[in-house]
Every structure is written in structure tokens, then in C-alpha cells.
User: Fold this.
Amino acid sequence: MHSLYAFLTGSMVWVSVLLFLGGSVYSLVSRAVMARKMDKMVYSYFSLHYALRSIFHWVIPYAARNWRLHPLFTFVTFTFHICLIWTPLVLFAHVGLFYEAWGFSWWFIPDLAGDVCAGLVLACCLFFLGRRLFLRDVRYLSTASDYVMLALVAAPYLTGMWAHRQWPGHETALLLHVFSGELLLALIPFTKLGHMLFFLFTRGYIGSEFGAVRHARDW
Amino acid sequence: MQDTDNRDWELGEKTPARPGEWAGQFEWVEEPEVSPDGERLAAVVNTGEDGFTLCVNGVVWENLYERVWYPRFAPDGRLTALAQRDGQSVLCVDGEEEGEWHDFLWDTLFSGDGGTIACAAQNGGAYSVVKDGTRWEEEFFNLSGLAVSPEGSKCVAVVQVEQMPAGDITKFQEGCYKIAINGKTPGARLLSAWDTAFSKDGAHAATEVRVSPYDYTIAVDGVPWEKTFPGVWRPRFNPKTGLITAPVKIGSGWTLAAGGEPLWDRLFTQLWRHKYSGDGSRAAAVIALRYGRWSVAVDGVPWENTYGDFVDELALSSDGSLVACIASDQGRRTIVVNDRPWTGAYDMVWPPVISPDGRRVAAVVESGGKTAIAVDGAVLASGFLKAFPPVFGPGSDRVLVRAIHDSGGKALYVRKVLQLDGPR
Amino acid sequence: MTDEIGAPRGHIKDVGIETGAARLTPEIIRKTALRMLHEEAGARLRTYLDICVRCGLCSNACHYYNSMGGDPTYSPAGKVKETLSVIMAKNGRVDVEFMKKACEIAFTECNLCRRCAMYCPLGIDTATMMLFVRRLCHKLGMVPQYIQDTAHSHSATMNQMWVKEDEWIDSLQWQENEAREEVPDLRIPLEKEGADVFYSVIGPEPKFRAQLIYQAAVIFHKAGVNWTMPATPGWDNSDMCMYTGDMEMMSRLKKLHFETALRLRAKRIVMGECGHAFRSVYDMGNRALGWRYPPVPVIHAIDFFHEILTQGKIKVAQKYEKPVTIHDPCNIVRGRGLHEKLREAVGMLCETVIEMEPNREHNYCCAAGGGVINCGPPFKMKRVLGARVKGDQLMEVHKKGGVTCIAPCHNCHGGLEDILHHYKIPMDLKFLGDIIYQCMEK
Assistant:
């Protein structure tokens, strides 16, 4: 088990980071090249000003009309995304690992706060699962992969909490935590999680079209 | 080609017409037209209760009509107009009614020397062409895209040869249109057809056609090329070799093709309105070098400068050494000659006119509501209410200016022959 | 747990779809789809499909979804799921029945109104994907009959309504004669070179609504506009080929339209009160030809009317007294942001304005746009039912005392007329030009 842990926290970290970075660069660059060939107008109309104007209105809770039309969802989705991204980056346990390995650290949150954040992520995942199960349109739209994605996203947070809380089987949970976290990171560029990478570009492009060409708002 | 030699090329100014004074005589005066030699100015006038006629240098035509429209001078100087009375149309030439009355006449066209005059005609819902007063024997369900050959022997039009029940999409796709040449329709059935070009001698006509919902090509004398493309634009004949060329779409780009095969070795984002020099040695086309940037390619080689709005109205000197066009960038238009834009930019620019020696370019330009004649980028004569296209003298050293200016609050038509400075 | 989802599709028999389908085999579909996916499915389309997380936030952006009792197959992402997602996932291995259904969805259940693009947090443009499906249908020869017939008219006559060259000129001269009864010195100047304004209209104006040309002529005349109309093809700015997916013909139509304005040396193109034509001229047609923006500035009638009203070139003799509401046409609101100018113009002309909610960029489409009304009578009832939320909006306005709905778009007029009739809403419809003509000093 120790050697597996060492493998997961050693080589596999690099593999997952490389897959994430390499996959992300590949995804973005290959699409950019394809757009250069087949969607020339994307470059022609992309406007940094209007792209940022659009993105700005969509990354602020309730700034866009559709956010206001879904107040609970908006609260949940912003909570989810904030906790999802920031918790692993500023968690004491993670920062500590960096310090051990590389000798440097940064601002962190105490583990208890980390548990709260992980709990929030899980609660949000449950909310999203509920939407997929009980909202007629979302249930219809959902495919098996959407449920798998949801489970993949929840897994590192559930196992992380499990391990930290020392619940029964926490040693296995720790292994699963590391593995699922790495899997999640590695899969981002190759799955629908890629919306994390492309959001800035798709939102930015439609914002450019609406703003620079059509002189209209898009939020 | 206009015969510029018989004109009065004496330096100086004449005032053949005072359109400002006509305004007081009539209910209204419409847009004036000028004769090729600049000696006559004509406009449709409303005489009041009695109807419409044409006023030429202050003298009105004898006949009055319920409507007179589309006044046009033929290249030989004859003045034509379409007149209507009691729901019927007639072509008037120099004040005389030519040929029969028809239910409707439109689209007056001339051969190169003006010797032939043709109109599209409709009678009782049947469509035909009237050439020099004589109607085609054949009639069709519809007619469009009329063209007259340069020497006047042929009239070509796109005609509908079979009636289509409303909404019959299958029938349309089987082809209900053909190319009519002097009324005869020897070629293939087509889904649609548009612009026609003639060979220099008028012996052949080439038309851009649609042969299936997805296939476009060029029909020569009504017969389509075997090779088709996802898009074609108006063809042209090389005046020397007779080779028919057309812009065609290949993949995602455009190039110039001859007989169905690419003639130029590269693709452009867009390519159209190509033209040949008089001697057929060079071809130039308007191109989009990349998305949103327009330019000109000469024999397939693009100019360096590009323009954002458009490039239009290509003109080539007879030996092909000079290529000129209108170009517009950010709403300002100018003339470009051999890839060098004139320094001035204008609100409006009319097509460039090249001198017979192929060394000078003139154009009507407009700024701030006033028009001027510019030659080689410098203003030659300015301050006009309206200016007609300039004409170079046979020696290329004189320019005929035909323009209307404000003379004490009244419009005055002036005809000037101006001397140009020495050779460029 | 199951519930009924998926409206019955395929029970509406359309000649264009049926005859097209009869010629198809799965092999033809696969070959055609593969070629299109290879040649035309670019980065935008693929990215949209890749990143849609199926959150359902687009659902309530769509008037069909909202009108059809929340049937999820009408949600924008649902329509993609029913069509393009499958075609992409199966690399074109779909059968004829599937394509018939996809054709019906893409042509008659999406108005390409782009409202969902501004309700999707990721900015996914479903209209682009539906247009892709329509183009595939065009390539397969399976397009609803009525809109296909219109596209054929464009091809043969370069206008939408089979108007022949002489009929066009005759219509203008007839309207000029009519208008001279009222304004004796009025002209509709044909083929006038160097005018400030090239006025272009859509095919139905000379064919069915010639009084609009009359009214425009009176407005231009009184405003002292230096304007012209062509006596040649190129006068029609409309474009159903854009909506059938026949981009080659769309290009040809726009080329002729712009070339005609350039030939007449007009400084601006002012176009009549039409939405889809504006989209074609301002947004899609120019792009297909390589023009980043139209080569000649294109001004929608609303923009132009606003200009001459605010410049005082038109004086209002008496304001329109009946309370009005404003219908925002998608293609000039989400397509050009003219909603405020429209309101300013209406404010100058009308005593009372009662707004529909939501409005401006958030308006609901009339369900006629995007070529849906042009798919004709077979799909009329589906269209009207798909516009129930628009009917609700109008009914609300009616209850508040609204009498007139101003809709500055031809297809909106057609759609709203059917909505008012079906939902028994006693309101009348006007173009902004109707109101100006009625209220101006003549």
C-alpha cells in the first residue's frame, strides 16, 4: 500500500499534470488551428473588449438575467465552482505536500475549512444529481457520461474528506483520493470538463459577436 | 468602343444646356443624361397636365406620354427612352417611336457601337426581346439577363421554357430555363442562369448557369461545360484567343478556370469580376486575399495592398500594363492604379477611365457633396453639382469634362475640353 | 420513472421532406454527412458539442420549450441531442426516418433566434448547429416544400416571390402613380446614380404589400431624402436560401444586392422593415462572400426612421392615440441592438407604450422567424402553438389596454397575425412605417 501511495503521489502526479497540461494545450491549439482554417470569422470578430465584457457579466453571480432566473442554481453553481477549484489549491494538506517536496508554500486554509469546502462540493454534486434525476429537461438531456462525470468530480472530495476524517477504511480512501484527483485532472481536456478550458473562448466569442458586430448585450 | 475622333476636341468651354432654367418651365426635371460627345444634355421632364417627355438642350420632344423613363444615350449618340401610355410601352429614339407598342418594355441595351438597340418585352404575359424594333418570334414564360453582343448581331437572354405549377419543386429541379440566342434555345435545360459574356466577334456567348441544386458551371451558347463547381461567377472571353475563363470555387477557395480547369495556380478567399486587357495579354480580377481584405490579382499574382470594404470596377489598358480599380477602406473610397492608391480619399468614386495610350487614369470623385474630375490623383476640375465620366482625347493629352455646376443659383451644364500637362 | 417526452414528429406530411426522403438511403446519408462533417464542421461547432454540460439552462430561453409545456425535446440542447449530436456521434450512420425527424426539428422547431446563445453560460450558439443540420438536409435534397420553392424563386428570379423583372418595375411605377394622387410631385427614382440612399425591400413588398413602398416613398419624399431603387434584379434583400442551408445561393443573392448598390454609387443601403433580410445582408451573406462587414453601410428602416425623426426631417402632426406595444424582432435586436432606437422612435410617435415582458434583447421570437413561417401551412399549427408565450405576452398587454402591436419585421407580422388570431387577442398590427405615415405632417 505504501508503494502504491508512493507511486500515486510520485510518478502519477507527473503523469496526470502532464496529461492535463499537454491535453489542454493540444485541445486549445488544435481547435485554434482548425478555427483558422474553417472558422475564419472567429479571429476576425473576436474582440477582447467585448469578450471580457461578456465573461465579466457571466462570472459574477446574478449579473446575467439567466442567473437571476435560477437563483438557487446560481448560488449552488458558483459555490461549487469556487470550492471545486480553490479548495485543492489552498488546502493545508496540499500546500504542506508542496512544502515537503519543494520547500515552498503559500496561503492556505485550515483542514477544517477544507472539509467544509469539500462538503459544499459534495452537497452541490448532490444538487446537480437531483437536477439530473428530477428536472424533466435536465433528465432528458443527461447521458450516462454526465452521471459518470458527476461521480468523478465528487470522488476526490468525498475520499479526501473520508481520509482526513479518518473514517473506517481511510487508508484506502486516501489512495482513492489521490487517484481520483489525478484522474479528474487528467481527464479535463478530454471530456466535457473541457468547458473549463473553452469557457473563456466560447463565451468570449459570442460576447464579441453580440457586442462588436450586433451591438447588443448577451447576458 | 466610342469613336472619340469625331468629337470636338478644341480646347475651351461650351454651355450647351441650362438645366437650371428648365426647372421653371416644368413641374419637375429628373436626373440628366449626357451624350457621349458632351454636346447634349437630356432629362425626363414633367410638363404638368399634359404628361412627360424628354428635354434635350432645352428643347422638348414633340410627343407627350403618361410616363417617360430610362433615358439613355446610345454609344452612337442616339437618345433613347421608354415611354408609356394607356398601360402600353414604346421605345423612343431621338423623339420618334420605334417599332410597336408593347405591354411592357424595359432594360434598353446597346451594341458596342450603338448600332443595335434591344429591349426586353412582355406582351400578354409572354416574354420576348425587341431588337431594332423587331420582336423575336419566340415567346417565353419569363425572360431575364438580357445581353447584346458587341457587334450587335446577337441578343441573348435567360428564358423560362416550361410553366411551373406553384410550389412544384421537382419540376424546377428538372430544369425549366434555357439560354435563348436570338430567340432560339438550342442548349440544355437549366435550373437557373444569370450573366452572359460575348466573344469579341459576338460569335459565342458564355453564361453562368446552375445545372443541379448543387452544381454550377458555364454554358457556352447554351451548352454547359461538363465540369461543374460549387460556385461560378460571370465568365469572360479572352479577346485575343477566345478562351473562356470564369471564377470557380474549388474546395474552400476561388480561382480562375478555363474550360473547367484551373488557370491560376492559387486559391483566393474570393475572386470575381475578372477582365482582360484589350490585347488579351493580361487578366486581372478582384480578389479577397484573406477574409475581409480585398485586392486585385493580375495574372494570378495579388497586389500587396488590401482594402477592407471592397474593390470594384477593374479597368485595364489595352496592353495590360495599367490596371486600375476603385477601392474602399473604412468608408473612404479612392482609385488604385497598379497597386498604388491615389493619395486622396473620397465619399464616392466613379469607375476609372484609362487614356488610350494607357498612361493616365481619370475618374469622377465626390467629397462633401461636390463632385470633381481627377486625373492621376490630382483634381483637374472641381466644384460641380454633378459630373459625368470624363473622356480622354485620342492623343491622351486632352480630357472632355461634362459637368453641371451652380451658376448664380441655377444649374448650368458645361462641356469643357482641358489640356493635360505633358506625359507622365 | 417515465414521463411523456418528445412531441410526435413525422405526422405532418410535407412534400419536400417526403420526396427528398424517398430518394435517400442510409449510405447516401452517411456519405453526405461525412463529407459535410469533414469539410464544414469547424472548431466552433465541435467545441459547442464537446463542452455542452447539458445543464438545461438554455431550456427556458426557448419559446418553443416554454410554449410546449416544458417538453425537453424542444429545449435548445434537446434539439441538438435529437439531431446533430447523433449525427456526429454515429459519423453519419443514421437512417432515413432519423433524418426526416432531424429535418422537421431543424426547419420547424427552431427560429434561429439566438436567444439561447445569450442564456447559455458557456455561450453555445445553438442556431449555428441547427443551421448545420439544415444545410445537411439541403445537401440531401430534403427541405420543406414551401421554403424550398422560395429558395427556387431566389435562384430563378433573384427575388423571393417569383417577381419578374417587368413586374418589379411596374409595381414601383404603379405605387408612384398611386402616391401622386396624394403627393403630386412624389417620385420613386429608378436607377438614379449617386443617391444617398439605395432603398431595398423584400420580395413580398411588391407582391403583397405594395402599400409599404408607397408609404416609404411618401416618408422619404417628405424627409427630403435623396434616394433610389434599382430597375434591375438586386432590389430584393430577402434570403430564404440562407435558411434552407443553400449558402451558395445565399452568396449569389447578396453579391447581386451589394453589386447593385455599388453600381448605383449609393452611399448607404436602407432596407425596409424586415428582420431576416437584415441578418442576411448585415451578418451572414456578406461573410459568406468574404466581406467582414457589408461593403456599403446597411441601415435598417428602424435606424433610418429614428434618424429622420430625431433630425426633425419628419414632423409628427398628431401622435398615435391608441396604446401600443412593441414587438422586438430578433434579427434587429439581438442582431443589431436597435431596441432603444425603436423605443425612442415609437415614443416620438405614440401617446402610450405598454411594454411586453421580457423585452429588448430578451424578447420572445414570434416563432415565424428563421424561415419557419416560410415552411408553410403544413407546419402552421405547430408554429402557433410554439408561440404560446408570445400570445401570453400579447394577452397581458391587451388586458392592460394595449390596442396596437408595432412589429417592424415582415415575418414577425405573419407570425403575430397567426398568434393574435389563434389566441383570440383583439389587437391590430402595424409596421413602424404605418405609424409614421399615419402620424406625420404630409
